Amino acid sequence: TEAPLSLAQLCQWNIVGPRKEDISEETTYCNPDVLSSVLTSKNVFDELGEREIQRARLRSNPYETVGKVFFQNRAALKMANLDAVTGMMFTQPLDQNGHPMVTENDVLYFADVCAAPGGFAEYVIWRRKDFSNGFPDVHGFGFTLRSNDFKLQDFYAAPRECFEPHYGESGRAGDGDIYKPSNVRNFCRFVKTATQGHGVHFMMADGGFSVEGQENIQEILSKQLYLGQFMVALGIVREGGNFVCKLFDLFTPFSVGLIYLMYRCFRGVALHKPNTSRPANSERYIICKWLKPGTECVFKYMFEVNEQLCSLNKTEEDVVQIVPPEVIAHDTNFFNYITHSNDTIGRNQTISLQKIRLFAEDPSQVESRQGTLRSLCLKLWQVPDMPRTAPVREQPNRKVADLLKQNSMDSLSGNTEELSTPHCLTNHVHSIYDYRFVVTAVPSQQNKSRAFYLGLSGRNVYRSNSLSINSNASSSWERLALSVELPPDTLLYAELVDEIRGMSVTPPSPRDVKSDVRNQRRVMALHVIDAICLNGFHVANLHLVERHRYLRRFCRAVNKSSRPDLLPIRCKKLFKLEEVPLVLNSTLLSVRQVKNSGIHRVMHSRDMDDADGIHIPATGILLISTTKKPWMMAVSKTNKRKYFYNTITKEAMFETKVECIAGFSSSYNSSLLWHWNHGTVVLGNDKGIGGELADSDSDDNSGDQQPSCPKKKKELLHLKHLVDMVQSIVTANSFLGKSSQ
């Protein structure tokens, strides 16, 4: 194992010399006859007309009819080809020990660079969903020229909501030019931040531009593009991650030096020309496997070389070498590999160019294997032979009725039982082990912000306070006027929340309160409580904890931190009811002054993607049942384990069976809301708290709120009542004393 390259060593390798515009003498890394044949054969493009070449190429290429099937372009099938050839190392990456790199609590992060309009990304998202049984556990970052942008509207095969274009400096407002150092620096920083500092699991790059009339120097014209794509890969791919990039000729010392640097940075490197790459062109792909640690110096070196190329642009000088020839020659394995690759691809290209000439001269000739090879390729790449069809737009009530029927669910109303007194608590909660809870953040129970949200693709998001299985019933769905994007076939139970950014984590001293308030800003977000369907993946019949596992990954997949114009989408933190004393304490929950809203309870959320976390208004807790009636949970005194108990048949068992699990319908119908009305004591210092927190979604709140005080004087439910119940049960270690276990 060779030691990582140092920046001081690398900078000594850089040589600037006269700019070259001819590669006919670049024979160090190939057979001279091969290079001569390739350059001579390319003259076919000068001798034949464009239409003649096009027709001859279509008839002579045995893989031409593979086409694009249901994707937006041929590039998608090219990535399918590369993925299959490498054992799906991109969409199902494994580490060196053969273990999946994407854990069950993570999503697959990838980047698609210089690859508009997005065929590569469309394939990856589709394939990942296919591997995950329809669940979209994938998020892609795009970086390309703004003038040649991604066509997200053409993502028919995969949800475009899982893809996030970025354009370097200024983010969405940038130009996406990979030659600009500021763009590279900003894009790398953005990706690292968005992936919690880890980087992507793999990066794809497919950059290219027209070289009509200059085919023989395509390599020289593309050198900075090669460099830029390699540089970005080293800046954003995580340790152990992978990289694939389109290249053309590789005869010059500069190009071979780039390949050598990647060879030193990854544990495995290969040059491959896939069947989907037309055989008569110079195109090939570098495939890099498992990024090594300690490659930061190579990234910095490439960054400096790129700055040099920018400064030497439009001069007579150029960077002609980045790795000394003797260093490459000394590594005989690498030298022999690059030479053999150039010779093999060059000979095959020469044959294909000559074949085009023959087919152009004789229009009756046709490659007879096209149909057979097309079927064989699609089978080997595991791509269905289906036509491309545009998605069908459906009415909200019909889509919801269809989703409910697929999950064997009935209609659901928008009413939630409220816990307002100690009697309500003891009357409804028979076992604390039957419930989990989330902290709510909307002003009152009737507020329409806590509702069902239906995604029909992009900003076609609708809201309703009830679900009906009758598709012909009058629609209760209203289109959301706010900027929220959800993939199609998504049905969530969520609430709109005014997150508070800039608030100090700990309460400020009296002298610092004004400064703390001044730094605050409120950002509306969609906080998801539960789900029925996630982009066609049904979760309604799973356990609540399992539904939340999927929800957390779903929110990571569709959330776009670079889009301040879109509402963030977050999964609410789920707590066990027995953890109430630990959660609702002064560490997480505090009484604070909120900008333009007075004194309120707020909760600090540490598990959000934001580096400093956020605060949310805390207006109550929603208890969500995990056990389906007539079952309930208790703790065995003898075995010190939780078990299920049937209150009708008196049956008891330790194992979890389907009939014990509360699906979405049971959880929703059994949910209990403890709204912290005026006078509710939670922390003990609640007297200074004002009325409801002013809600920026004010149009939805008019006329719906309950009075802050009940008309009839009654004992309010306070936190002490709930804590006393929890502590007495946990201390006793069993709720069902009559159980035999």
From TrEMBL:
SUPFAM superfamilies: S-adenosyl-L-methionine-dependent methyltransferases. Gene3D superfamilies: 3.40.50.12760. Its EC number is 2.1.1.57. PROSITE patterns: SAM_MT_RRMJ. The keyword Nucleus applies. It is an enzyme of class 2 (transferase). Its main location: nucleus. It catalyses: a 5'-end (N(7)-methyl 5'-triphosphoguanosine)-ribonucleoside in mRNA + S-adenosyl-L-methionine = a 5'-end (N(7)-methyl 5'-triphosphoguanosine)-(2'-O-methyl-ribonucleoside) in mRNA + S-adenosyl-L-homocysteine + H(+). One of its GO terms (molecular function) is methyltransferase cap1 activity. Residues 692-711 are annotated as: Disordered. It is found in: Nucleus. One of its GO terms (cellular component) is cytoplasm. One of its GO terms (biological process) is mRNA modification. Keywords: Methyltransferase, mRNA capping, mRNA processing, Nucleus, S-adenosyl-L-methionine, Transferase. This is Cap-specific mRNA (nucleoside-2'-O-)-methyltransferase 1. It comes from Hirondellea gigas.
